[in-house]
Amino acid sequence: MPTHLFLSSGNIIADRRFDFARELLARDEAEAAADLLLQAVELAPDFASAWFALGDIRENRLGDRAGAIAAFRRARDGDTHDRHGAGLRLMRLGAAELGAMPPAYVGALFDQYAPRFDKSLVGELGYRGPALLLAAVSEVCATTCRAVAFARAIDLGCGTGLVGRAFAAVASEIAGFDLSPQMIERARATGVYARLAATDLVQGLAREPPESAELILAADVLIYIQDVAPLLREAVRVLQPRGLLAVTAETHAGDGVVLTAGLRFAQAESYLRTELKRAGLALALLQHASARNENQTPLPGLVVVATKS
């Protein structure tokens, strides 16, 4: 059974059924694991973790799309915060309209991921978002004859501090926001941040004074945001005149926003161009560049730098 968030049912027998199902799945006994999970939810009807695991088995091991949809709906209904991300699985299956990722899901995901984040993202997925952003910002500064130096920067979705470390030499003060408290603690350990907050990114920006930052960075962040407009509006409010917003994004060849098989959002180039203009940002640089790999293949991506006029 893939590593998923586990939320106890409060019923020790149901929880044990879940554990036994995990062991069976590890031995490639998917049908037997599904049967045990059904026993678990009979004992604890709102056992969200068991429903989610059952949906995953039905979708990916048994080829039962209708059964997977039913299980994911029960998982979503069993946890009002949808910390498992069952709603995203329903979107991928075409059983729910495209919508925002639950903040509790993103926070829980990265709390789990935090201890192995750097090793996994950099070592295994070849993550290069911070380097791409630094190169892009440096190129824009060179083109506009300005120094690559910023009095105050904000790192959105700061994670363990990879972007902060990349920009520490060119930003006098860096504030970092992230939904995951565990990520924030690891960012704090880098010593490069003047301030850190575990917060929703739009809400974090909303608490910042107007025209208070020269640079806002968002590496590997838009992949978790279905509608970028609220974030861009707050970024424009917080940026000083001529301030820069630099982001990476996954992209696709069509229009608008799609949810990928990896449960991340990919934004079309045309969509980002439109939303940046609508927010009042002037595009200074847009490059097609991949920030990470998947299955050892670079994912289609964009690096964007925009200026507040």
From TrEMBL:
BP terms from Gene Ontology: methylation
Chain ranges of the Methyltransferase type domain: 155-246
Keyword NADP listed: no
An MF annotation (GO) of this entry: methyltransferase activity
Keywords recorded for this protein, A-Z: Methyltransferase, Transferase
InterPro entries, A to Z: Methyltransf_11, SAM-dependent_MTases_sf, TPR-like_helical_dom_sf
Pfam families assigned: Methyltransf_11
Protein known as: TPR repeat methyltransferase
Organism name: Rhodopseudomonas thermotolerans
High-level lineage: Bacteria, Pseudomonadati, Pseudomonadota, Alphaproteobacteria, Hyphomicrobiales
